[in-house]
Amino acid sequence: MYTHLLLPTDGSKLAAKGIREGMRLAKALGAKVSGVYVAPPFVAPIRSEAADYYRGPYSRGEYRRLTEGLARKALGVVERSARAAGVPCRTRLVADPQPWNGILRAARAGRCDAIVMASHGHGAVASAILGSETHRVLAHSRIPVLVVR
């Protein structure tokens, strides 16, 4: 069956639901898990005369520290859940402007054979308008995706 599950998280309660179900599946299958947190890459402010008066909200270093802190907190949920379930686990932070693409890149890089993630379940029309990341993962994934509602 499946031997390596990818569990994406953004630190939300909804993502935690996907992690719980993914961990239950991994334990039942004797599979390992990888947790992934996708953050947008740092974008430097455009240099202009205004830049002399305005410096963006974060420097590259401040942005990196903030992002790494958020990732540690979100991925800590995956790590603690894996320890409690006795499931082997690795986690990583991926930089990508499109979360769905970062999730798929992490799945390929980790050689995962399935993705387990939660969805709000808004439906097709709302997903098209709201831009559901789960919908995009489903549309572009070459490996099975288990969607938890």
Describe the structure.
The protein has 5 helices and 5 strands. It is α/β, with parallel strands linked by helices. β2, α2 and β3 form a beta-alpha-beta unit.
Quick overview of this protein structure:
Helix 3 (99-109) packs across helix 5.
Q: Can you count the beta strands?
A: 5
Would you tell me the structural class of the helices and strands?
alpha/beta
How much β-strand is present in the residues? 15-25%
Provide the low-confidence segments as ranges: none
- In one word, what is the shape? globular
Helices, by number, come to 5
Rg calculated over all Cα atoms: 17 Å
Biggest β-sheet description: 5 strands, parallel
Q: Overall pLDDT, averaged?
A: 89
User: Separation of termini?
Assistant: 22 Å
In spatial order, strands of the major sheet run 3-2-1-4-5
Give structural attributes.
alpha/beta, 149 residues, 5 helices, globular, 5 strands
Write the layout of secondary structure elements.
Elements: E1 4-8, H1 13-29, E2 32-39, H2 60-85, E3 89-95, H3 99-109, E4 114-118, H4 124-130, H5 133-140, E5 145-148
Parallel strand pairs: 1-2, 1-4, 2-3, 4-5
Helix pairs in contact: 1-2, 3-5
